[in-house]
Amino acid sequence: MSAVAGGAATRRDSLEFGGGGPAAALQEYARKWGPSPLSPPLALGPVGLRPVSAAPGAETAKYRAVSSLAQGLTSNGMFGSSSSLLSKLSGVGTISELVGGGVGGVSSVGVGGVSGVGVGALVGEKPPAGRSRLLEDFRNNRFPNLQLRDLANHIVEFSQDQHGSRFIQQKLERATVPEKQMVFNEIIGAAYSLMTDVFGNYVIQKFFEFGTTEQKTTLAQKVRGHVLALALQMYGCRVIQKALESIPAEQQQEVVRELDGHVLKCVKDQNGNHVVQKCIECVEPTALQFIINAFAGQVYALSTHPYGCRVIQRILEHCTPDQTAPVLAELHAHTDQLIQDQYGNYVVQHVLEHGAAEDRARLVAAVRGKVLQLSQHKFASNVVEKCVSHATRNERGLLIDELCGFNDNALHVMMKDQYANYVVQKMIDVAEPTQRKVLMHKIRPHIGSLRKYTYGKHIIAKLEKFFMKAPELGPIGPPPPGAVL
Predict the structure, then answer these.
(1) In the chain, at which end, N or C, are there fewer CB atoms within 10 A of the end residue's CB?
(2) DSSP state of 51
């Protein structure tokens, strides 16, 4: 329904508290609540609202637009529902941005709407609080060919905006040296705040990746004195990691020295542990002795920690034998507990996969005699599999012999178990041909019962694969009566 130009409106909008049309509605609103946030600056006098435009009917059309906005905001509760105007606003992130703590904030948001004219055009066209006109226009795709040089004096603001930050990152990858320098000159003064910003940190990272040597050095100097705070911060920890990948050895060592005395705090922190891992990966091991020293007497505790277990693995990968020796000594002292721990089992697996032969041998020896028990354990079963895969030929033979020596009941338990069945499969895969033949004939009488179990079917699939490859074993299924195994 629409109002008649120059006459009274024939419908009642949600802001109309009495009759008299839109003018009376806004006047009544102003009397009760103060000036309407939905109206343009108007003079309220004893004779009512003074029209801004002298064009016939202009004020009616304007009030109809504003009244429609009010209707959208209030038709389903104070701010409407998902089908109201809020669902049609462009460039507005949250209700609080729209209303600014109340509907008064509407005047600061440009909203595409009536007849191609934004409501912002009716009420001043101000961008959201704290956002420049340039950024607002960019966010609304009004500058399709924007270049870095066009952002002069707005680099920091763009860096802290989701879309602006992405734009700068993309441009920096192919920017000329003068363009990089222009951007760098603006961000260097706000470097620390950008390092800890949800979007700004990526711009700083791009400079560590694509900046000049001088720019990287200058940024690294900005990190000095703040390494611990940044390492423990969600976004700052990413900047420190990127810096460690990009700066010279001398500066790397300056950075890591600030963590001395705070190693365990960082290792147990969800952000800091990544920084310690990156230190171990990128920095000369001799400069990291303070990390090894901090781990003395703590290896078991850290190996069973969700973050600490990762750091232990990095030490085993990158540090010198002299540095890893005391770490491994503590690991071997707690092998039985670590094998069954939800995090410690990964450390043991890592030693089996990457460790020295003597360390692998000690771990395989710890598993021997316990294959049945450990194979049925959620975490330890992974270690048994790794033992079978990475043991020496002789050690592997002993582990498979242990399985072949089981009585029928123990073997049956393993094959239908949700964890142990994978150990049996691994043994079938890696066994020597003669040993595999013995193992398969031990399993063969159980074919019928295995079909009843979800995990037993995995074993059958594995057997079918090998029986097809070795016709001399005969058809899949129980051996014929009187067959010699």
Answers:
(1) N
(2) P
With beta carbons less than 8 A apart as the criterion, state whether 41 and 48 touch.
no
Query: In 1-80, where does DSSP find H-type helix?
Result: 21-33, 58-74
Classify 161 in phi/psi space as left (phi over 0), alpha (psi -120 to 50) or beta. Answer: beta
**The pair of three-digit structure tokens given for residue 310, joined into one six-digit string:** 């990762």
Q: Which of 254, 333, 257, 264 is nearest to 300 (CA)?
A: 333
- Whole-angstrom CA distances from 386 to 104, 107, 238, 358, 383 are 65, 65, 33, 16, 5
Q: What is the number of structural domains in the chain?
A: 2
Tell me, yes or no, whether 183 lies in a domain. yes
Tokens of 82: 């998902």
Q: Give domain status of residue 189, yes or no.
A: yes
Locus of tokens 């001043």: 124
Q: What is the largest CA-CA distance in the chain?
A: 116
Give Cβ neighbours of residue 419 (< 8 Å, ≥ 6 apart): 375, 376, 377, 378, 381
- By three-state DSSP, how is residue 200 classified? helix
Give 237-290 pLDDT, tens digit per residue: 999 999 999 999 999 999 999 999 999 999 999 999 999 999 999 999 999 999
Final residue in a domain of this structure, among 195, 223, 251: 223
Structural domain of 376: 370-475
